[in-house]
Design goal:
Mean pLDDT of chain A: 91
Oligomer: heterodimer
Low-confidence stretches of chain B: none
Structural class of chain A: mainly beta
Helix content of chain B: under 10%
Shape of chain B: globular
Radius of gyration of chain B: 13 Å
Largest sheet of chain A: 7 strands, mixed
Number of helices of chain B: 0
Distance between the termini of chain A: 36 Å
Mean pLDDT of chain B: 93
Order of helices and strands of chain B: EEEEEEEEEEEE
Order of helices and strands of chain A: EEEEEEEEEEE
Strand content of chain A: over 45%
Helix content of chain A: under 10%
Largest interface: A-B, 24 and 23 residues
Radius of gyration of chain A: 14 Å
Distance between the termini of chain B: 41 Å
Strand content of chain B: over 45%
Low-confidence stretches of chain A: none
Number of strands of chain B: 12
């Protein structure tokens, strides 16, 4: 059973370009979370999605950032017109369906390290 | 709102020393509590968890007890090893929603 898969592991973008980060959850998991980690800092929640639904996007910046989790395929975190301040590690996590969620940990991917030059 | 406060680092110890990393939380209801560990360049791995008051989570010699009366979930290990050097995150989940993390504590163990 493969773990949470994120790609790419490293992504370099010039200012103004778009960044697309992909996350494939563990098999059987229908909940996906995105977190951002700045160097030497903790994890900041960005967004929580279920298949085809955004459940909680309270941590998402109001502009340039969007996330989706389609019925088929990976979850995508999209950052438009990137700026240097977007440079960070972005982690995706997944967990099983609702019903067992409260007691269940989230399983994390290896992260995508975005560098904006 | 819900929050997690953990001991600031970095923490530096000698091998075989006793470790405590403090964690306290604020939450409505009855959250589940977690400790995650992050090794350099990697994602987070679950270290242990507790889902109700007085539960003790344990793994790899680490332990933490869910104390509702003090709203705490301190991480302890009796004898640390160099391989325990990492960043440790305390976290909580209080509903079918996001997991909230503390700011992390960097632990370095000297041989």
């Amino acid at each position: 059973n493969a773990g949470v898969m994120q790609n790419p592991r490293h992504l370099v973008r010039r200012r103004g370009q778009e960044a697309r980060l992909r996350c494939s959850p563990m098999k059987g998991h229908s909940h996906v979370y995105w977190y951002r980690q700045l160097p030497e800092e903790g994890l900041k929640f960005m967004v929580y999605l279920q298949k085809e639904n955004i459940i909680d996007e309270s941590g998402m910046p109001k502009e340039r950032f969007s996330a989706e989790f389609p019925k088929e395929g990976p979850s995508i975190l999209r950052i438009q017109q990137v700026v240097r301040g977007d440079s960070a590690a972005y982690f995706c996590a997944s967990s099983p369906p609702t019903g067992r969620t409260l007691n269940t940990e989230a399983f994390f991917g290896q992260g995508t390290r975005l560098t904006v030059v | 709102g819900n929050s997690v406060t953990q001991m600031e680092g970095p923490v530096t110890l000698s091998e075989e020393a006793f470790l405590t990393i403090n964690c306290t939380y604020t939450a409505t209801g009855y959250p589940s509590l977690f400790w995650y560990v992050q090794y350099p360049g990697e994602g987070l791995q679950l270290l242990l968890k507790a889902t109700k008051a007085d539960d003790k989570g344990s793994n790899k010699g680490f332990e933490a007890t869910y104390r509702k009366e003090t709203t705490s979930f301190h991480l302890e290990k009796g004898s640390v090893q160099v391989s325990d050097s990492a960043v440790y995150f305390c976290a909580l989940r209080s509903s079918a929603s996001k997991i909230i993390f503390g700011s992390g504590t960097r632990l370095s163990i000297r041989p």
